[in-house]
Amino acid sequence: GTAGMEAGIACAVPRDKKVLVSNGGKFGERWVKVAKAYGLDVDEVKLEWGTALEPELVAEKLATGRYGAVITVYSETSTGTACDLEGIGKVVAETDAIVIADCITAAGALPLRTGQWQIDIVGAGSQKAFMLPPGLAFLAVSDKAWANIEKIDAPAFYLDLKAYRKSVADNDTPYTAPVSLIRGLEVALDMIHEIGIETIWARTAMLAGAMRAAAEALGMKVFSRRPSDSVTGILLPEGVTDKQFRGTLRDKYGCWVAGGQNELKGKVFRVSHMGYVDPVDTIGLVAAVEY
Questions:
Q1: Which of 36, 123, 200, 268 could form a disulfide with 260, with the two C-beta atoms 3.0–4.6 Å apart?
Q2: 217-245 burial string, b = 16+ CB within 10 Å, else e?
Q3: pLDDT higher than 90, residue 24
Q4: Are strands 258-259 and 268-272 parallel, antiparallel or unpaired?
Q5: Where is the Aminotransferase class V domain (predicted)?
Q6: Does the structure show a pLDDT above 90 at 281?
Q7: 196-290: which CATH topology?
């Protein structure tokens, strides 16, 4: 996923304008670093963790005419927070700027209507809702973004999107392809299509809602003020250490949850609702947490 997002940033962001980058967690912070690594004129919007970039702020910034791109994270995995990507897309579409969205923990889990929402570049990865090992990055690129890419001499070789577009026209890749992962992707997509993506969106929302309700019923608190349905961040109970809590879940009950990252390390645990997860998994985890 990181390679895909870096390719979009390196190849599609205009060099003669500023780029607005939202930073509300570990992955927003990553896109700030990537943009700066390519020498882009970055306007970093630092958000309180657990909050999201709002369309109104994007509209205010873009009204100046000084911005060529907006980079945001649809589902910030580190905080379990989702933004109003549809609203942001609508605002950006009314300008000459493009919007690049990190949808790595959103694609295949949260509602995502790329064309209808006018999202210019969507980045995703194989290791989340696509239920595969890491190793594949996916990009959806609009005509508006391609117009930028064709004009930019990107300082990239392996991540040069023009090379990929040329090869895709011949049903090929410009460099050696991870064939085993692509074959696995075909199986995963067949599974997704058999269920139906709207059904998967609804199931993900149901599992997330159930986990949040269960946590609150057990006296715990959901961290985010705008929770994502793909991953739930829950504050650890007072007096309970991360090592003790997650270690007991793993060793005694066979349940794996993620810990906090950066400033949330040792303060929250995170539960995935993406991909090959069903109600039995969720109910079982709730029971293990209660015991």
A1: 268
A2: eeebebbbebbbbbbbbbebeeeeebeeb
A3: yes
A4: antiparallel
A5: 15-217
A6: yes
A7: Aspartate Aminotransferase, domain 1 (3.90.1150)
Given a cut of 90, whether residue 206 has pLDDT beyond it is yes
DSSP per residue, 21-44: EEESSHHHHHHHHHHHHTT--EEE
Tokens matching residue 74? 């649809």
Please name which of 24, 52, 4, 23 lies closest in space to residue 32, comparing C-alpha atoms: 23
CA dihedral 126, 127, 133, 135 (to 10 degrees): 50
- Spell out the domain ranges in the chain: 2-180, 196-290
> How far apart are the C-alpha atoms of 271 and 108, rounded to whole Å?
17
pTM of the model: 0.95
Return mean pLDDT, the chain. 97
Q: Report the C-alpha gap between 146 and 32 in whole angstroms.
A: 22
- Residue 290 has, within 13 A of its CA and on its CB side, a CA count of 13
- The tokens describing 208, both together, are 């997330």
Distances (CA, A) of 282 to 110, 204, 222, 232: 18, 11, 16, 12
Residue type, 63: A
Residue 291 — pLDDT band, cuts 50, 70, 90?
confident
Q: Which residue is it, tokens 């609804």?
A: 202
Regarding the domain delimited by 2-180, which CATH topology (the fold level of the hierarchy) does it fall under?
Aspartate Aminotransferase; domain 2 (3.40.640)
Strand partners, 258: 270
Per-residue b/e over 84-121, b at no fewer than 16 CB within 10 Å? bbbbbbbbbbebebbbbbbbbbbbbbbbbebeebbbbb
DSSP state at residue 216: H
